[in-house]
Amino acid sequence: MPRRSLTAVAGGIAVAAALVLAGCSSPSTAPAAGGAADPDAIITVGSQNEPTSLDQIGGGSSGVTEVFIGNVYEGLFRITDDAEVEPLLAAETSVSDDGLTYTFTLADATFHSGDPVTADDVKYSLERFISEESIAARKRQLSVIDTVTVVDDKTVDVTLVSKSVSFTYNLGYVWIVNDTATDRATTEDGSGPYTLADYRKGDSITLDRYADYWGDEPANGGVVYQYYADPTALNNALLTGAVDLVTSQSNPDGLAQFDNDDFTIIEGTSTTKEILGFNDRIAPFDSVDVRKAIYSAIDRERLLDSIWDGRGQLIGSMVPPSEPWYIDLADNNPYDVELAEDLLAQAGYADGFEFTIDTPDSGVHSTVAEFIKSELAKVGVTVNINIITDDEWYEKIYTNHDFQATLQGHVNDRDINFYGNPDFYWGYNDADVQTWLAESEAADSVEAQTDLVKLANQKISDDAASVWLYLNPQLRIAASTVTGVPENGLNSLFYVAGIAKAAS
User: Fold this and answer.
1) How many whole angstroms separate alpha carbon 477 and alpha carbon 482?
2) pLDDT of 266-280, one tens digit each?
3) Residue 195 contacts by C-beta under 8 Å, 6 or more apart in sequence?
4) How far apart are CA 39 and CA 5, in angstroms?
5) Are strands 263-268 and 474-479 parallel, antiparallel or unpaired?
6) Which residues have C-beta within 8 Å of that of residue 359, sequence separation ≥ 6?
């Protein structure tokens, strides 16, 4: 079958899905304040983002991405902090002329057990990712895979059902795991620069530097992720030196205490959308007028100011400005109480109605829920708030679809595709959107893909498929002795190998 090098593909179809985020720069890797960096320093990371599973196909929430991708496990490709696609375990890639078959030649990498990374492992990992039992976030996009064929130990062919302009980008999120490994719930056998040394559920995850890593040596001796349920406790840990940095600042009221020479506030580009998600399958949220009424009854600008004190951004769909198919739809469903009341009356709810918001107990969700409750009371809609844990959310909402409305921060980049899946937890079902998103992946160019996704973007906003409350700011804070912290919040990717700390 005729082939051409991936780097020579016209228009860069296989790699042009990578978007360079305008205005973002790589974090400094210069020696930290106070002296030369200590190559054996242990970096303690404070986070509120504990994984719900250590196995990627078990969901794991964004916390599993934060800890494991690029640190313990690696993919065929790596998504950089500025959203470029780089080869990683796939040292060389070629694509057939019809765009359906990718041939990957593997790097000479080894797993932590000492086993070499082989084509058998790639075949196992990809088939496992799209298997029936998988609930991985990008399973649907990668279900475009038809067959995975081992050519030899270091060569694997992947044939697609149809062309996928985002294929290599999506592969950047798939772990390549040892096909002989077992018990991924508590152990690992990845090929990354760190091994899993200790896991204490509800408390911490410890990563040790892997001495025989096939790539560049990390700038530190290991990393401890320390988990905090309360943002104030997290900030106190940073102030007292119990942690060296926090991956995401969720308590904007606490920023002022870090605005001094002892700390560095790092503001990057976020892909985290705070969403009021409806169960669009059931009344009254199967009505577009009801959903639009709820949207227009919420003063989102005041909400953003009250939560983030002017940081962050209002958006009007699932697409943030960092993505190529962004449209400014922030005012598409405007704040207008009279309009909300008219829409409710048209839908047959002139006297309002009552519903329950299931909200996770993490982050600012419960605060946002209280704000929404007070806003909707103005148009006669009564909101009950049911606070649940993240684990309960995954079972009740994500898996069982047993809810009326919910709050969630969706961190994934390029995740408008969820609205093309009627089986996704919110149940939005529009044939045009499904067609446009499916055709966009089979497009011959990124430009053609962008045009189709913009159509879907406009339609989900017109239908108020969800309420996109705001785009989170991406704020990280580090002690001034620490450098090399990734800036951006791209789908919670958080590569720790470049983080350095000055010798004490």
Assistant:
1) 10
2) 988 888 899 999 999
3) 72, 112, 188, 207, 208, 210
4) 38
5) antiparallel
6) 365, 366, 368, 369, 385, 386, 387, 388, 406, 407
Q: What is the pLDDT of residue 25?
A: 34
Degrees (nearest 5) of the Cα angle 392, 393, 395?
Answer: 65
Which tokens hold the place of 79?
Answer: 């998504």
d(CA 492, CA 504): 30
CA end-to-end distance (rounded Å), the chain = 59
* Torsion of the alpha carbons at 389, 391, 394 and 396, rounded to the nearest 10: -60
Helix (H) / strand (E) containing 44 = strand 42-47
Structure tokens at 391: 């684990």
Identity (one letter) of the amino acid at 403?
F
As a whole number of angstroms, the distance between CA 46 and CA 37 comes to 20
What is residue 7's predicted lDDT score, i.e. its pLDDT? 31
Question: What is the β-pairing status of strands 90-96 and 145-152?
Answer: unpaired
DSSP letters along 260-307, please?
STTEEEEEE-B--EEEEEE-TTSTTTT-HHHHHHHHHHS-HHHHHHHH
pLDDT tens digits along 30-59: 444 557 999 999 999 999 889 888 988 887
215 secondary structure, DSSP code? S
Task: Give pLDDT tens digits for 461-496.
Answer: 999 999 999 999 889 999 999 999 999 867 778 999
Q: How many whole angstroms separate alpha carbon 229 and alpha carbon 430?
A: 38
Structure tokens at 144: 């475009």
267 close to 475: Cβ distance less than 8 angstroms: yes
What mean pLDDT value characterizes the chain? 90
Alpha-carbon distance of 185 to 409, in angstroms, equals: 25
Residues in the chain: 504
Read off the DSSP letter of residue 397.
I
Residue 421: count of CB within 10 angstroms of its CB: 18
